[in-house]
Amino acid sequence: MVDDKNYWTQQREDGKWESKREGASRASKVTDTQAEAWAYSKEKAKEAGGEAILKGRVQKIRERNTYGEDPYPPKG
Predict the structure, then answer these.
(1) What's the per-residue H, E or C state across 5-69?
(2) Helix or strand or coil: residue 4?
(3) Of the candidates 30, 25, 28, 23, the residue with the CA atom closest to the CA atom of residue 4
(4) How far apart are CA 7 and CA 5, in angstroms?
(5) Terminal-to-terminal C-alpha distance of the chain
(6) How far apart are the C-alpha atoms of 51 and 8, rounded to whole Å?
(7) What are the tens digits of pLDDT across the range 5-33?
(8) Reported pTM
(9) Of 53, 43, 51, 44, nearest to 67 (Cα)?
């Protein structure tokens, strides 16, 4: 299920980093560093009340931050 409130940060084939809204065909922002792209993704996810997801260089999820209503809140 695509949620357009979520923003993904991942490395592109050209070595740059992109922030991309879930379901979008193009990146919202392309940067030279992971830190810049990750900061932008977190900012946009906060504004939308969604989730920011960071993929590392090996394309595995390294970190995720939820803003707004958490679909999987921790127990206790």
Answers:
(1) CCEEEEECCCCCEEEEECCCCCCCEEECCHHHHHHHHHHHHHHHCCEEEEECCCCCEEEEEECCC
(2) coil
(3) 23
(4) 7
(5) 27
(6) 8
(7) 999 999 999 999 999 999 999 999 999 99
(8) 0.85
(9) 51
